[in-house]
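Ticket #4471: structure output looks truncated?

Reporter: J.K.
Steps to reproduce: submitted the chain below (312 residues) through the standard prediction queue, then opened the result file.
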Amino acid sequence: MDGDTLYSIGDLARRTGLTVKTVRFYSDCGIVVPTDRSPAGYRLYDIEAVARLDLVRTLRDLGLDLATIRKVVDRELSLPEVAAAHAEALAAQISTLSLRRAVLTAVAERGATPEEMDLMHKLAKLSEDERRCLISDFLDAVFGGLDADPRFAGARHSMTPELPDNPKTEQVRAWVELAELSQDPDFRAGVRRMAQNQAAEHSRGDTAILRRDQVAAVRELVGPALVAGIAPTSPQADPTVAALTAHYAHIVGRPDDVGLRRRLLARLEPANDPRRQRYADLLAVVNGWPAPENLVPVLEWSMQALRARIPE
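Returned output as attached by the reporter:
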């Protein structure tokens, strides 16, 4: 019977699928201990050694180190405890590999320089706290001194990316690009000017056409003309422009004149920054939101139409 049979190192190798050299190594390490020796002095092992070696091979295939494996087979550690710890370590490794893959994919697609690749890699490796700090710095630069007003506090929240614990590759790539964009001084200054303009108009009791929902109102007025292919500088655009300026005059409580059109144009120009649209697109990817509507064509049409109707 197997229980009474003793095996040589070669026998163990054949039964377990390990090499003779590997079995001898595990024996020298004390992971499997010989039960007896042959008359010629060769090490002999019982059936328990076969079971131990099978377990050792499985644990090694899973990536456990020998010190941990020895504690498991010697029952100093329970297998469930080791499995849980190792699963946690693997999760961290998988997350790291996912970040690396995302960076390499972005480099391949964007044709990044070594300097850009280094920046992307550093951004991708940031911890959750570091990511929050980086974005908070951007939002402080934009809304600092303004976000005591609930309207700005809400805007700040709506502009905050929240990378999930197990992000998809596209979310990591979007986060890296969004983080890069948030560090652009010119972009920061532009968004800050929009916030300050809005604060100034609120202080006068006005409402600026700056937020996406307010810009969406422009889309409702201009959209049909855009879809119809009406050129913004053509006479056919006059009714649409009149409706647009009348709407804005009603909001701010001012007469619909050239001064109001200049003021409206000044409000729409910073909102038309393509980087603002890109930030919204990336934010939606990171947060798992539906893709936002691209309002740039509507804004561009409106601005061209207004310029054509403002005297030099």
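Triage note (M.O.): checked the attachment and the full token line is present. The two ends are 105 Å apart (CA to CA).
Status: closed, working as intended.
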